[in-house]
Amino acid sequence: FTIHHVGKPTPLPLIPHNDNMKWLVGDIPFIAKLAKERGGVSYAFDDTALRLGPVSQVVIGLGASWIGRTFGLGQVIVILADSQEIHDLLVNRAAEFDRSKLVNNLFAATLPQGMLALPTDQQFKHHKRYLGITMTNPYLARMTPRIVDRMQELVDLWSVAAKRLAVGSSAEVAFNALDDIRLSSIDVIASITFGTSFDGVKASLEYLERNPFTSPSSRPAIPKLVADLEVLLDTIGKGIFFPVPTLLPWWTRTFNHKWRKALTSTHGYLRSRLYSARADYELEAEHNTSKKPVAHRADNVLDIILEREREDQTRGAKTLTETEIIDELTTFALGGSETTAATMQWSVKILCKHRVVQYKLRTELLNNLPVINTRPPTYTEISDETNLPYLSAVMYEILRCSRTAAAIDRDVTCDTTLLGYPIPKGTRLQMPIGMVQQLENEGSKHVTDALDSVRNASSLRGRKTGYWSASDAHLFKPERWLRPDGSFNATAGPWLPFSYGFRGCFGQKLALIQLRLFLTITQFNFFFDALPEELNGWKSYETVTSHPVQCYVRPIPWDNVDMSLFR
Ligand code: HEM
């Protein structure tokens, strides 16, 4: 009886939990089953929240029992699935709910001094201030032509590949675009960070041109540096399944030789870029008399870092060490490419299924942005939500439906309450943002309203967004973001793809401009034809982000499209 009692998983009191927890292991079998069936652990949290309400919990191992907590044999994960409370918690209660150590541990071996791995301390704040300029409007405006060039390379590559489909030299009806988009995203980040692209897409184009009879899906081996970044990303992603998170950085450093090799060669490259940028910068600094702010003249992220370094040295303030700079460059290369690539891959899949959306988007571009016929749009033109409401609606809807970041985590830093439930210090909190933005609808309004009596004071100031309609919340429908007069409404319903608050996504502005340009430039040039179901299934696999398993595309130049399809 005593053994049975000691091994019984213990949930936190009062908070709803799954009934069928198993002895010693709690909800682990349930989580494993859903992860296997649906392609990611996040589905177990979504499922629990959908059944049990706005606050629920899953129990890992022995859960909250004394033995579980004392010997690391148990943990409780509280799930918060109410968009109003999530927003309030991220924006107003950051001191009580800090970035989770689990997430920091995932990145700690690869970029220990980078923002993704740092707790919210002075060092993190210093880094964020240092790099903040890279996300300002003037800097992103200067980077826009480079992003346009990368997107144009993708269009050129797809034009060549699509011609091979069209002339029937291949039995393939579509080609695999997964790697093209991934390389394009890395090329964008490299152009912004170092001032030069890795030319991954260009190499694919040259390869297809050199091999006129090869399959439209055929591509050269990916560049070595990109392959190394893939190894790093893969290691970080697999860390989610490591049983003792605190030991993960040590384990990776000690036993993962492939990772070590990839990191050494990535660091070698980044260091060489840093040294040559420093040499150039010092040479130019002697002649540079410009009084313009750095965001208006820096050529790349390295320049910004070096400029700030000089300012800080002059003021006698603390500068970033070489390790810190290298780790932040790694943060850009990894954090800035994978998420955006996955979202672009999801957008291709979604658009293939929605031909009328493509037609409406192109019509808006031709009518409201006619300059696109003669030159690429500028940052100001492409970001104008008033002029391009449908583009904004499509982009927001893609980010809502693609669930690239399925969930975010926080650690509870002190005993507190959440929607009336007591939550002890040290509890892990998970917010299934992907599910909430997609499924929270007016059908749950009575549940949400009933929580007003237990909401935190800052949350009571009011809900920031509307509700989705219950009948179509699960569907892809950009029109939900438009008011009756056709204008764009960013607060039409819950939308949290980048999270919020001080630890929300650092690169949101860059990601948004990249997505806008991707949609604009590809949709201006091509119609993405519908694909057979076996080439456009909805299976995903989850690492830190959620990726599609397949991404095929059959781009058709608009001149060759039968317009009667849209009448
Ligand atoms: C569609 C693309 C993207 C999505 C959906 C996305 C989403 C997210 C999410 C959900 C978080 C976690 C926030 C939290 O825990 O509250 C995050 C963090 C972060 N993202 Fe992004 N992201 C994207 C693109 C980018 C880009 C382009 C960069 C470029 C540098 C970037 C850099 C970062 C960094 C550095 C953090 C950590 C911030 C911190 O620790 O405070 N992200 N992102």
From TrEMBL:
Keyword check for rRNA-binding: no
Pathway as given in its UniProt record: Secondary metabolite biosynthesis; terpenoid biosynthesis
Location in the cell: Membrane
GO molecular function: heme binding; iron ion binding; monooxygenase activity; oxidoreductase activity, acting on paired donors, with incorporation or reduction of molecular oxygen
An example Gene Ontology CC term for this record: membrane
Chain positions recorded as heme binding sites: C505
InterPro entries named among the record's database cross-references: Cyt_P450 (IPR001128), Cyt_P450_E_grp-I (IPR002401), Cyt_P450_sf (IPR036396), Cytochrome_P450_monoxygenase (IPR050121)
The protein's required cofactors: heme
Keyword Heme applies: yes
Superkingdom of origin: Eukaryota
Keyword tags: Heme, Iron, Membrane, Metal-binding, Monooxygenase, Oxidoreductase, Signal, Transmembrane, Transmembrane helix
PANTHER family: CYTOCHROME P450, CYTOCHROME P450 12A4, MITOCHONDRIAL-RELATED
UniProt record similarity statement: Belongs to the cytochrome P450 family.
Protein name as catalogued: Cytochrome P450
Organism: Mycena venus
